[in-house]
């Protein structure tokens, strides 16, 4: 490692760029480099699932290009560069045969989409959206098309169902799940969201496995194990994300559900850190914006010379389904308890409580979302 080696951040998504911004508020002098596998444009990932309703092209969602970000941050931003290995002994990031030294290294590599077995055979007719380039590719694939089949009824599948329908497309959702967002919601709250989306015109086939997906003409045909066959102009796979931890594992860093880090976001190597979707903090891998922003502020302090332990308050998730407003704070896995639901039409107030009556999570739909702040105050911290 050279004496003037920079702090290096791998990744220029929300995690990488927000960490760089927070760091520069505290340290304007230390050399800083960000490495991006794509073009390095800064954008807000949550806007990807509101773009069709607003008629936004990918370029319109980008806020600044890599050159502008480099100037703003007083940093080098390398674009179109794939990191192939990390040498923790020599403190080098390898880009093929090229080695770049670092003083400290931060992994902000995010997560990658899970893929369906038919993905390769269906080509452009079955895509996923995980970043700005994916969004642009999907918009291009939809030119002149009317119907979209979404595979997956989780948070992302539901948000895109709402957005694409508002954008004027016919939308069908297929999932093996018994109800929408089962990892987040009790059945009664999910039913309210489904009713809102159905009123908007979204068609659902839940509790069904896909037996086959094939090209038919210029679209695709899907056969379900229920015997139903569906046709659509375009497919969108939204079956979840997996933390990108391959680089870390190949470098010998500890990994489980993600790159394992301590409360200071330090990996098993003292000069390598991780945050965002790729990181597992004290057993928690939280792929949401607020934990990411909280992590960026804490890690910036540590990297600027003030070691800071991360704390997570309970952080409600605003799900972008305007057909039925929804806010949810899911109970952490392993917490014993049950859902208690009160409903008036589509206004559902669901509380997850333990045997002592302590609140550990909630789901609010419709007008009940007004209770978000009150209930959040009753929740214990996710990571105190």
Write the layout of secondary structure elements.
Elements (H helix, E strand, L loop, with lengths): L6 E4 L3 H13 L5 E4 L22 H4 L4 H8 L2 E3 L6 E3 L4 E4 L2 E4 L2 E4 L3 E3 L5 H4 L3 E2 L4 H10 L5 E5 L3 H12 L3 E6 L11 H14 L2 E4 L3 E7 L2 E6 L4 E4 L1 E4 L3 E3 L2 H5 L8 E3 L10 E3 L4 E3 L7 H15 L13 E3 L6 E4 L8 E7 L2 E7 L5 E7 L6 H5 L8
Parallel strand pairs: 1-2, 1-7, 2-3, 7-19, 9-16, 10-11, 10-16, 11-12, 18-20
Antiparallel strand pairs: 4-5, 5-6, 8-17, 13-14, 14-15, 21-22, 22-25, 23-24, 24-25
Helix pairs in contact: 1-9
Summary keywords:
single chain; five-stranded parallel sheet; globular; 10 helices; 23% helix; alpha/beta; 384 residues; 25 strands
What's the gist of this structure?
The protein is an alpha/beta fold and 384 residues long. The chain has helices at residues 14-26, 58-61, 66-73, 119-122, 132-141, 155-166, 187-200, 246-250, 289-303, 372-376, and strands spanning 7-10, 32-35, 76-78, 85-87, 92-95, 98-101, 104-107, 111-113, 126-127, 147-151, 170-175, 203-206, 210-216, 219-224, 229-232, 234-237, 241-243, 259-261, 272-274, 279-281, 317-319, 326-329, 338-344, 347-353, 359-365. Strands 3-2-1-7-19 form a five-stranded parallel β-sheet. A five-stranded parallel β-sheet has the order 9-16-10-11-12.
